[in-house]
Write a structure and sequence with these properties.
The chain has 385 residues and is of the alpha/beta class. It is built from 9 helices and 18 strands. The strands form 4 sheets. It has a 7-stranded parallel sheet, covered by helices on one side. Strands 2, 3, 4, 5, 6, 7 and 8 form a 7-stranded mixed sheet that branches. It has a two-stranded antiparallel ribbon with strand order 12-13.
Length: 385
């Protein structure tokens, strides 16, 4: 049985993720060897119930058979995730159900639809616990209004979780590893990983439902919820949207977006991107690129905003804010700033710039991103003297 450890953002492997040429987990290794609806009560009497509508009479006294034959069901549980048109409900029967077509069907009162809310979904049809999405017709969704929660602060909850962890669990949580091609779910559980970073191979030729099922299998295997990350910068670096089954066209580069419509267009793109990722179960985007580059000859230029430090800082702030508003974490990269250095994926780069250059320029976008609420900072491969 899983421990009650779910947090929206678990501040256990935040701060800096060192050089993501990422850690590949090898089978057989162990950290321990390294470190020594009609009238229905909302009370949760059962996870699902059925109620038959009374048979309304037509004006000529005959029954309306199309209405009389319908049967409404309900399922009660806790909201685990929600978007404008999707709801994930952890039901009392122990299953997790993902519903589509929820827009305009939610009665959330003043409290609103929040993660952790108690909710009842009224529907026609039959639930299938093994399905990625439930093929039922939703009639309505009612959210219970609750008193002000008397829960500890998120940091206190995280501290409580940390105190319950074994040393091996703590070490595992420090690693956000490249997703292995085989036995990924098993290894996530075995090594208590903090999360997986997905690359293009993890999305190649897959449908949206297949991606969702795969990611859900990782989460189901892990006792502590995983960070599931991806590099979806737009432009030359896209992992998800290069698959036409997941998006018609790849996301555009920051520079192209800015030319189209300035920061407003940047904000729209970040929101759309976050919604797509979240719908598939991805909760961290390794973006935005915060490197300051105005020289087209720089290796990092095409991936950057292509403007000076102040403008790049506004870009970073805009992307992080829009991403956070849509329930996705951001990774600022590549600290302390790539500058004009060569491609460190193919060689070694030494950065000999004076520290004052960093404080007056390169640090500014990272500072803006952190102020906007970014959860992670990714360090570059550069050797800074």
């Amino acid at each position: 049985m899983k421990k009650n450890r779910k947090l929206m953002w678990l501040p256990l492997c935040v701060a800096v993720i060192l050089s993501l040429a990422c850690c590949s987990v090898q089978e057989g290794e162990s950290f321990s060897s390294v470190l020594n609806q009609s009238t229905i009560s909302l009370e949760p009497q059962s996870s699902a119930s059925a109620v038959e509508f009374s048979q309304p009479q037509s004006t000529d006294g005959e029954e309306d058979s199309s209405v009389a034959s319908r049967q409404e069901h309900s399922v009660y549980g806790t909201v685990e995730d929600a978007t404008m048109d999707t709801l994930v409900l952890a039901a009392q029967d122990g299953n997790c159900y993902r519903f589509e077509g929820t827009q305009g069907k939610v009665d959330a009162g003043e409290a609103g639809l929040l993660i952790g809310s108690a909710a009842t979904v009224y529907y026609y049809g039959q639930l299938d616990p093994s399905a990625s999405f439930q093929s039922v017709e939703i009639h309505s969704i009612t959210v219970e209004e609750a008193d002000e929660p008397e829960e500890p602060l998120e940091l206190d909850r995280a501290q409580s979780m940390l105190e319950e962890m074994t040393l091996e669990e703590k070490v595992g949580q420090m690693f956000l590893a490249r997703c292995p091609q085989e036995k990924a779910a098993e290894k996530a559980a075995q090594y208590h990983l903090g999360g997986y970073l997905l690359f293009g191979r993890d999305f190649e030729n897959k449908t949206k439902d297949q991606v969702i099922e795969t990611i859900m299998s990782y989460q189901a295997a892990s006792e502590i919820p995983l960070f599931i990350g991806v590099d979806e910068e737009g432009g030359t670096v896209n992992r998800v949207s290069r698959n036409s089954q997941l998006r018609a066209d790849p996301f555009q580069s920051p520079q192209s977006l800015y030319q189209e419509g300035g920061l407003e267009r940047i904000e729209q793109d970040a929101a759309e991107k976050s919604q797509l990722l979240k719908a598939m179960g991805i909760n961290v985007n390794f973006a935005p690129v915060c490197d300051v580059s105005e020289n087209p000859q720089d290796f990092i230029y095409d991936r950057s905003f292509g403007k000076d430090a102040q403008q790049t800082a506004e870009y970073a702030r805009t992307v992080v804010s829009a991403t956070k508003e849509n329930g996705i974490g951001s990774v600022l990269k590549h600290f302390p700033g790539y500058g004009s250095n060569a491609d460190t994926h193919t060689g070694i780069a030494y950065d000999n710039r004076d520290y004052s250059v960093f404080t007056s320029s390169d640090f500014l976008p990272f500072k803006a991103g952190i102020e906007a609420g970014a959860e992670f900072v990714l360090v570059s491969h550069n050797i800074v003297n």
